Each structure stands twice: as structure tokens, then as C-alpha cells.
Amino acid sequence: MKKKKQTLLWEIQSNKNDKPSYIFGTMHVKDSVAFHFIDQAKAKIDEVDMLANEFDFTDLPATVNKEAMTLPDQLTLDQLLTIKLYQKLDQLLRKMVGVPVQAVRNQFPLLINNLIAEKVMSAEMPTSLDQALFEYAQSKGIATGGIETYAEQVETLQKIPLKYQIKSLVWTIKNAHKYEKEIKTMKRYYELMEIDKLYQSSKRSLGGMRKILLYDRNVVMADRIAEMTRTQSVFCAIGAAHLWGKKGVLYLLKHKGFKIKPLKD
User: Fold this and answer.
1) Contact assessment for residue 257 and residue 14, using Cβ atoms and an 8 Å cutoff
2) Plot region of 141 (φ>0 → left; ψ -120 to 50 → alpha; else → beta)
3) Residue 65 has what pLDDT?
4) Which of 15, 18, 58, 252 could lock onto 222 through a cystine, CB 3.0 to 4.6 A?
């Protein structure tokens, strides 16, 4: 990737709208590394008509639907893992997350992986970067919305075959140190704005889940961003791993006729 394209912030412009819009790659975490570029993001949010996060924060239910986050048919992790792996997972969760496996035994394996990944990251900030951008836009009286809905994100989780989720969790249990190292490496890629490496690393770690979690969602995101920006200027904040690659949002928008321009400091 050319040095000039090592950026998280991109200007996009359709021939149907004179005003430019922007796409910003985020990390959905409270780690201070994710906030290194928040000033650049805020400056562009000040220029637009609307902020569109990956999902609309005003769409969040007052209480999380726990049933939507739990395994189907009353399955539990101890039924899906061997006794030895289940015990190792318990040790891993106690050490890294501070909870016993019993507390999350009915949750989707992907959520367990995400829980561990979140603990590898620091949590110096009071909110995630995405929520901080949302709160900033609201404080400025700028309209807010979402590219996906919360319900769609839950539905995506439920679409992922359990065999892929279990395979990923088993790998994490057996390679906890390597998993921690991978998360820290992706954090470093983000800090360096190396979105190509971040994309490749994310794609590799997702394995059989990448079509549902990455490629299919990229198509939906690109379609909705194209529609949103037809009549207004929008600042779109999506996970940085969605930006790059021939199935990435930037590439898809380019093939819809958008002019794509990397923005540096």
C-alpha cells in the first residue's frame, strides 16, 4: 500500500452530490489508541449534515435481549467442548476476564472470543470511540443514524454456523498467548493506520466466519452509504477492517462511481 493511503479517514464523493462525505475506520473499544485520531474525525463531523455510526446508538434497546445472545436449543458450552477444553476455558476466563466459565456458559462462542479480546485491550476511556463520536455529534446538534440496525447485528451473530464459532473458540483456548499477541498486533496496525494489514489480519482470524461478518456486511454497508450520501453529506464511522480489500467498502464504493480520496493530518 502506498504511504499516502495509510489513513483511517477518507473523503468520498458521488457525482450525484456536490458535497463530499467521509468514511472513518474505528475500533469498537475504549482503548486510548483508538482515540488518537478523534480530533481529525470531529473536525469533519463539524462539516457534515449527519453522522452515521456502524449502528444507530439511539436504536439500542433499554435492556439487552439476553435470549438473542444465547445459544439455541438450551445448548451450553460444556456440551460443545470436551471436559478438558471447558476446564481450560474456565481458567482462561478467570485469569483474563475475572469471571468463571459458568457465568457465560450459554453464550455464543464468538461472544466469548470478543470478551477475551476486549480484555486484551485497555479501557482508559469512559466510552468506546464509536459512542464518543455519537455523543460529540449530538452535542453539536448534528443528526445521527446508523448504517446497520442493532437487530441486524444480532441477526448476523445468529447466522454464523456454530461449527465455525466453536472452531475459533477452541483455537483461542489452545493458543491463548498467540491470540493475545494477535489482538495487540491489530491494535498496533490501527495506530499506524495500516488498514491493509489490519484487514488481512482480521480476515485471517475470522476464518470461515469472514463471509458473514465481513464480506456480506460490506456489500450492505456500501449500498446504504451510497444511498445516504445521495442528498446529504455524511460522516460514516465503521470498523476499520471493513475499509480495505477488493471486497471492502472503499473498493465497492469506487465501483459505484464514487471518487475516493485518502485524507492525512
Assistant:
1) yes
2) left
3) 66
4) 252
Asked if 238 and 249 count as a contact pair (C-beta separation under 8 A), the reply is yes
Mean pLDDT of 200-222: 96
Q: Label residue 162 left, alpha or beta by phi (over 0 means left) and psi (-120 to 50 means alpha).
A: alpha
- Lay out the sheet containing 259-263: strands in order across: 143-148, 50-55, 234-239, 21-26, 9-13, 259-263
Query: Residue 251: pLDDT band by 50, 70, 90 thresholds?
Result: very high
C-alpha–C-alpha distance, residues 183 and 123, integer Å: 14
Average pLDDT over residues 134-148: 97
Q: How many domains does the chain have?
A: 1
Instruction: State residue 3's pLDDT score.
Output: 47
Dihedrals phi, psi of 245, to nearest 5 degrees: 90, 165
Q: Which domain holds residue 216?
A: 3-263
CA distance between the termini of the chain: 18
CA distances from 163 to 43, 81, 129, 168, 195 (A): 44, 11, 32, 9, 29
Report the amino acid identity of residue 20. P
